[in-house]
Each structure stands twice: as C-alpha cells, then as structure tokens.
TrEMBL record:
<comment type="similarity">
    <text>Belongs to the class-II pyridoxal-phosphate-dependent aminotransferase family.</text>
</comment>
<keyword id="KW-0808">Transferase</keyword>
<dbReference type="InterPro" id="IPR015422">
    <property type="entry name" value="PyrdxlP-dep_Trfase_small"/>
</dbReference>
<dbReference type="InterPro" id="IPR050087">
    <property type="entry name" value="AON_synthase_class-II"/>
</dbReference>
<dbReference type="GO" id="GO:0030170">
    <property type="term" value="F:pyridoxal phosphate binding"/>
</dbReference>
<dbReference type="InterPro" id="IPR001917">
    <property type="entry name" value="Aminotrans_II_pyridoxalP_BS"/>
</dbReference>
<protein>
    <recommendedName>
        <fullName>serine C-palmitoyltransferase</fullName>
        <ecNumber>2.3.1.50</ecNumber>
    </recommendedName>
</protein>
<dbReference type="InterPro" id="IPR004839">
    <property type="entry name" value="Aminotransferase_I/II_large"/>
</dbReference>
<dbReference type="GO" id="GO:0004758">
    <property type="term" value="F:serine C-palmitoyltransferase activity"/>
</dbReference>
<dbReference type="GO" id="GO:0046512">
    <property type="term" value="P:sphingosine biosynthetic process"/>
</dbReference>
<feature type="domain" description="Aminotransferase class I/classII large">
    <location>
        <begin position="112"/>
        <end position="470"/>
    </location>
</feature>
<dbReference type="InterPro" id="IPR015421">
    <property type="entry name" value="PyrdxlP-dep_Trfase_major"/>
</dbReference>
<dbReference type="GO" id="GO:0017059">
    <property type="term" value="C:serine palmitoyltransferase complex"/>
</dbReference>
<dbReference type="GO" id="GO:0046513">
    <property type="term" value="P:ceramide biosynthetic process"/>
</dbReference>
<keyword id="KW-0012">Acyltransferase</keyword>
<dbReference type="InterPro" id="IPR015424">
    <property type="entry name" value="PyrdxlP-dep_Trfase"/>
</dbReference>
<dbReference type="Pfam" id="PF00155">
    <property type="entry name" value="Aminotran_1_2"/>
</dbReference>
C-alpha cells in the first residue's frame, strides 16, 4: 500500500500543548469576566424548569465550544450556493462578535472543492444522473411516506438492490435511506448479548453507536494492526465472557475500507486470514472505498482481489461515490433476508426516495458501462486514481507530513497547532481552495490536520494550481514538518506521468443526455 505515517515531532507537539494550555487559561479568564458582568454573556443558558435535567454536554465540552471552537468556527460549516462539484461558490461572511453570530454581505468566493466526498464526480446538477432523478420524481414523487414492509417498496428499490448485488458480486443486498443509520440501527440485528465485537480504534461513530446498541462485549484493537487484532481474538476465545467465562456465541470483526481521517486502507487480506483462522465473522464498512478503490470501483475487496464471499457483511453508503444518499448491506441471501425480517430500521424505517434511488442506479449503470458515454465509468475511476497519487506525491515533495496510503482518495497532511489550523483554513479559501481542516475532538489533540478529498471531477490543472497555493501557504505558516525523504514511488508521479495515464480517455466526451421510457423513468440498464 506504500503507507505513510510520520510521528509528531517533539517540538511541534510541545508547542501545540502549550497553545491549548494558553487558550484554556484565557478561556477561564473570559468566563470569569462574563460571570462578573465585565463582558457580554451570549451563552445559551438552561431554563429554570430544566435545570434539574441531566446536562446535554459535559462541562469541558461546553467550555471548549464557547472559548476555543467559537473563535474559529468560521473555518467550518461554510454555506455554499452551488452544487458541490469540482468547484463551488462559498458564501462570504464575517463576525462582528468573534464567532457568536455571522453577517452575510451577499457576495461569494469561488473555490476548488476539496471538502466533499464526491469521489467519482457524480454530484452534478446536470447530466445522466440528474435527468434520471428528474424522471423518477415525475413518476413517483419525492417520497412515499411509508416503510418498505408496508406500502413504501417501489420497483426502483428492487432494481437498485439487484444492481448492487450484481455490482458487488454478492447474492443479495438491501438498501436504506440513511448511511449513518445503516450501521447504527442494523448491527443489533446481527449480534447481541453473549457476542463479542472487535472494533478498530478509529472506526466511525456510526459503527461505535451501532456496536453499543447491540449489547455485545466490545474490545478495541489498534488501528489497522492485524497483530493486535489476533491478540484480541485469542483473548476473546480463551477467556470468553466476563464473570461466567462462557465462550462467546459469535465474534464479529468490524473495520472500514478507507479511514477518512487517516487516509489509510484496511489490510483486508490479513484480516480475512485471521477471520478464517479463528472462525470469526467480518463486517466491512466500505463507505469511503466503494466506488473509490479497485479496478472496477467495487471497493477494497476489488482493490486487493479478494473474494466477496470471504466478507460476511458488506456495508457501504451512497452519499459519496454515487452522489446520492443512504446505504446498503450486502452478502448472502440468508443474511439479507434476516436483516429484512429482524432489523427495526428495515421494518419501521422510511423507504428511500425514488429520485435518490434513480441517481444511484444511474451512477451504477455508468460504472457497469450500461449508460453514459463509452467507458465513462472507467474514465472516472482512472481519473480518481491518478488524481489521488499525483496530489499525494506533490504534497510529499513539498515536505509536508502526509498520512495514508498511496491509492487512498483522502489525503491528510498535518498542521498540529490550533492557530495555524485557523490561519490555513482562512487563507486557503481566500486563495480559492475549499480544504477541510480537522482538529480536536475529531482527532487527537496534537494531530490537527488539513484533509484533501480528491474527485474524478478535478482536472490536473486544478491540482497544479492548488499545489502552488499550498506551497505558498506551507512556507508562510511553516508547516513543512517532515524530516524524511519523500517515498520512492513519488519520484515518477509527474505531470507527464499523469497525462500518460489519462491519454486513453482524452477524447472528447459525448453530450450528456438520458434516454427515457414511455412512463418517464430513465432507462438505466438491460
């Protein structure tokens, strides 16, 4: 995988800790001034009738939000006025009171969008997918207001489930209208009390919540570390359940395909080998890898050339590579039938809106070569792969500490200090880059970072212009912390290499339109 991860330099770690200590000291001083009336207190307070209730937030969470996050919250939750494609328009705003409120002058800033998980570029306001969504809206409406088990199951849902099963190489699949809930509300149908869940320490919060709702025993293993996973497997098998020491009825390993904060790719072949050796089950969340990895875009299973049948539960979302919403669970017919009959989300949850299903179904058809210009799916997959490697190589060459694997479409680089995080976010937008910055509590307190999400919609020219801006800002802010030489593979990832990789698809694309059937629904496949 050519994985890259460099430890935090000691000096930067110490300075980062000192920065947070100073911010905390000034925060306590300002709280004191607010309580004594020397400074306007704009903090939301509890009504008298609810003061006896359990507080929604811990004291430190509230303190952190109002004294640290508030001062720089203009760096996040930025409203946009256009489709989140390769570029977007960000609404300009300023704050007269240091982040308590915002004013909007009515102007916008155009920026390259490196903040959306639009891996294959299907987040478009025109083209095949948009036309299919419009046609589905005209026929079915925006929603049915019912669950699948009652009157909310449409033929387009069945088509989508069959298409996903075919695409993934599984026997069956079931789709849900919300990606987060696909994990959080369905895991309880798979495991329960008397079972053991072995979860990667960096798993998404939806997996954490879903694991807790099962009532199973949860054990954490080090991130992407098969050796530690094996130790936890042995421990679970040898010692069994707490107090009774009875063996666990089921052991479920829960991992992600691509970790969106680290840019790392799961070491799937080794985990599958452990799963088989110790007769455990494997739950794979492909939210960030489906459509983004593999020669055919089938995710991390395709990327490593593994057999989909070796993964017991394949889960993924449609919100990223497919430009839609919702999620899926795929696997054996027995598994999917069990989820349909046992999961509260499947029984009581609202069904997916037809326009969303049409968007996803059309994107799938393009990837399968059944819609769109010839080889359009292959072109997008190749463009994303080239963009990811080219951008990662350029950032390594700048001397930044870059995390993740070579082929990951998520490229984080480290900033560390909170003041530099805010400065980079503001200056990058002023120079036309929409880059996400991430800090505590989403990351460890000394590992704040910027995170670039590549898309097939990005051109090489966009990447070159963006690297020039990052080069300028990294010099200004002194964030070239790397003490290592760039990895060997970065030497040949030049602009000429990237153009050569894309030469096969350099011909002009056909006009985007979609054929429609007599009833107004887009024809998305055979």
């Amino acid at each position: 995988n050519d994985h890259s991860e460099e430890p935090t330099p000691y000096i930067e770690a110490i300075v980062t800790y000192i920065s947070y200590v100073l911010l905390a000291v000034f925060g306590h001083i300002r709280d004191f001034l607010r309580n004594k009336g020397f400074e306007a207190n704009m903090i939301a307070t509890e009504p008298d009738r609810t003061k006896s209730f359990v507080p929604l937030y811990q004291n430190f969470e509230s303190f952190f939000t109002r004294n640290l996050y508030r001062r720089i919250r203009d760096c996040w939750n930025r409203p946009i006025t256009t489709c989140p494609g390769a570029e977007f328009e960000v609404m300009d705003r300023d704050s007269p009171d240091y982040g308590w409120t915002f004013r909007y002058p009515g102007s916008t800033t155009r920026a390259v969008n490196f903040g959306s998980y639009n891996y294959l570029g299907f987040a478009e306001s025109s083209g095949y997918c948009a036309d299919a969504a419009v046609a589905a809206t005209e026929m079915y409406g925006c929603g049915v207001g019912s669950s699948r088990t009652e009157v909310g199951s449409l033929n387009i849902h069945t088509q989508l489930e069959r298409a996903m099963a075919e695409y993934l190489g599984t026997e069956d699949a079931i789709v849900f209208p919300m990606g987060f809930a696909t994990n959080a509300l369905n895991m309880a149908a798979l495991v329960g009390k008397g079972c053991c869940i072995l979860s990667d320490e960096l798993n998404h919060s939806s997996l954490v919540l879903g694991s807790r709702l099962t009532g199973a025993t949860i054990k954490i293993f080090k991130h992407n570390n098969p050796a530690d996973l094996e130790a936890k497997l042995r421990e679970a098998i040898v010692y069994g359940q707490a107090r009774t020491r009875r063996p666990f009825t089921k052991i479920l390993i829960v991992v992600e395909g691509v970790y969106s904060m680290e840019g790392s790719i799961v070491r799937l072949p080794e985990i599958i080998a452990l799963k088989k050796r110790y007769q455990a089950y494997l739950y794979l969340d492909e939210a960030h890898s489906i459509g983004a990895l593999g020669a055919s875009g089938r995710g991390v299973v395709d990327y490593y050339g593994c057999d989909p049948r070796d993964v017991d539960v394949l889960m993924g979302t449609f919100t990223k590579s497919f430009g839609g919403a919702g999620g899926y669970i795929a696997g054996s017919s027995r598994l999917v039938q069990h989820v349909r009959q046992s999961s509260h989300s499947a029984i009581y949850g609202a069904s997916m809106p037809a326009p969303v299903a049409a968007q996803i179904l059309t994107a799938l058809s393009i990837l399968l070569g059944r819609a769109g210009p010839p080889d359009e799916g292959k072109r997008r997959l190749r463009q994303l792969s080239v963009n990811a490697q080219y951008m990662r190589a350029r950032l390594h060459q700048l001397g930044l500490i870059v995390y993740g694997d070579r082929d990951s479409p998520v490229v984080p680089f480290m900033i560390f200090m909170p003041g530099k995080v805010a400065a980079f976010a503001r200056l990058s937008l002023a120079h036309g880059l929409g880059i996400v910055v991430v800090g505590y509590p989403a990351t460890p307190i000394i590992e704040a970072r910027a995170r670039i999400c590549l898309s097939a919609a990005h051109s090489l020219d966009m990447i070159d212009r963006s690297v020039q801006v990052i080069d300028k800002l990294s010099r200004l802010l002194r964030i070239r912390y790397s003490r290592r030489q760039p990895p060997d593979w970065t030497r040949d990832r030049t602009r000429a290499w990237a153009e050569a990789q894309l030469a096969e698809f350099s011909r002009p694309l056909a006009p985007t339109h979609v054929a429609s059937s007599a009833n107004g629904v887009a024809l998305i496949g055979a």
